[in-house]
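TICKET: design request
STATUS: open
ATTACHED STRUCTURE:
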């Protein structure tokens, strides 16, 4: 059953406590067995797709932060966010995108570097050196699997499952210095800030069953208007003062019985236009 977060006009995005406890337990088990964490954020909402308690969740393990889907975000904002996050977290931050392999060696170098202290401490304890163990974590749909696939691409050699890991998880040797867990850790959606919840809905990080598409699209329009004032108006060719789903649907001639605007269809289309980058390279968390 859905858990409604807020009473009143904004009770549109829900979350499910039962699923969350299970997901968190699994995530913690995975985190326990790795040396380095790759945290994937959505470059269009670097703040809203981050997890506030990340340090505690990952037990202060070294972390590489990726601003993924940077091909869909404002390049200027991405640069600013890289700087801000680096300063705030003291972690290396790279901008990545699934259709670009240039960042691969940078990612691998950083992982090896971040894992080095752990390997040195193992050697000091008289153990044999081994590859750095790394896993990818992040909110739903930020591109975790795409990054794993990109890292694995060249090397299909899987090493055996290790104790403490469920059987479906495998280590993949990426290079002599790096072993990657082939299953990503999903940070479950648990958000009581509706503003952030909306932004996660914009980027399709929340299942559609948890929200009202029209409310999310309406909020999306308002959010874009805040950051890019004329964009929606220009893209949909509106000549009205009011910028709303209703106006866009009428403009596109999406009408249902009774001559009313087909708001549902229009809302879905607006969100798709954004998600597929048709509205341009937009960042909806402001770095300034
Ligand atoms: N434009 C763009 N699309 C991307 C990028 N990375 C991933 N995608 C797309 O985003 C969607 C989600 O990517 P996944 O790699 O499945 O994301 P995920 O984090 O594993 O998602 P879940 O397993 O659902 O949590 C897919 O349609 C990808 O093709 C990127 O850098 N740029
Ligand atoms: Mg995935």
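STATUS: resolved
RESOLUTION: sequence designed for all positions
ATTACHED SEQUENCE:
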């Amino acid at each position: 059953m859905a858990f409604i977060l807020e009473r009143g006009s904004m009770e549109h995005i829900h979350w499910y406590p039962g699923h969350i406890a299970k997901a968190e337990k699994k995530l913690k088990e995975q985190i326990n067995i790795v040396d380095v964490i790759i945290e994937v954020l959505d470059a269009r909402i670097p703040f809203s797709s981050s997890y506030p308690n990340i340090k505690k969740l990952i037990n202060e393990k070294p972390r590489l932060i990726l601003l993924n889907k940077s091909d869909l975000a404002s390049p200027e904002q991405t640069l600013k966010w890289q700087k801000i996050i680096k300063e705030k977290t003291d972690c290396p931050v790279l901008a990545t995108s699934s259709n670009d392999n240039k960042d691969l060696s940078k990612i691998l170098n950083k992982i090896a570097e971040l894992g080095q202290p752990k390997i040195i401490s193992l050697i000091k304890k008289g153990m044999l050196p081994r590859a750095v163990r790394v896993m990818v974590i992040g909110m739903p749909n930020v591109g975790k699997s795409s990054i794993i696939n990109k890292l694995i691409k060249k090397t299909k050699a899987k090493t055996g499952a290790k104790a403490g890991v469920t059987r479906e998880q495998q280590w993949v040797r990426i290079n002599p210095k790096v072993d990657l867990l082939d299953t990503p850790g999903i940070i479950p959606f648990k958000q009581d800030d509706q503003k952030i919840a909306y932004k996660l809905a914009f980027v399709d990080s929340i299942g559609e069953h948890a929200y009202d598409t029209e409310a999310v699209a309406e909020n999306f329009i308002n959010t874009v208007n805040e950051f890019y004032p004329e964009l929606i108006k220009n893209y949909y060719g509106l000549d009205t003062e009011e910028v709303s789903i209703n106006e866009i649907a009428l403009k596109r001639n999406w009408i249902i019985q009774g001559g009313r605007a087909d708001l549902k269809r229009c809302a879905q289309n607006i969100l798709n236009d954004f998600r597929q980058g048709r509205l341009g390279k937009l960042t909806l968390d402001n770095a300034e």
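CLOSING REMARK: Residues 68-69, 71-72, 97-98, 138, 140-146, 184, 186 surround guanosine-5'-triphosphate (ligand 1) (CB under 6 Å). The CA atoms of residues 211 and 278 lie 23 Å apart.
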